[in-house]
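U., I forgot to send this yesterday:
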Amino acid sequence: MTENKEQIAPSDYAEVLKQLKEKIRAAQVKAALAVNAELVHLYWDIGNTILNRQNQEGWGKKVIERLARDLKSAFPDMKEFSIQSLLYTFICSNLPRV
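Result:
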């Protein structure tokens, strides 16, 4: 009772499959771009928060180092919370938000 694949697939099956694959790939790209845009805004906001605290409360390098350690501890899978990355977000926060 084994049927051949061609016998159980409609004549336009290959085209439908191709179209669905294209839609899935397009949605994956769109989702990745949305995630990247949201992360850029997050990093800008983190840097801006550090900048504001530095201006208002005199936060220095030691506070930023502790913040980096605490964020890395809370989010161990994210590499973006090293001291260098936080300092970079701080520098970039001086740029206008897009």
